[in-house]
Amino acid sequence: MVVHATKAFASDFDGTLLFDGWFKTGLLGTGRLISQDVEAIRAFRDGGGLFGICTGRALAGVTEVIGGAFGLDFCITVSGALVVDGKGMAIESHVLARDLCQGLVGRYVTPGVLAYLQGRGFFFLGESNDPMVTPIASLDELSEDVHSISFGFEDAGCAAQCAASIEEEYGDVVSAFLNVRSVDVVPVGCSKGQGVRCVRRHFGVGAIGGIGDSFNDLPLLREADVAYALDFAPKQVQDEADVVVPSVAQALSDLAAR
Question: For the whole prediction, is pTM greater than 0.70?
Answer without folding.
Answer: yes
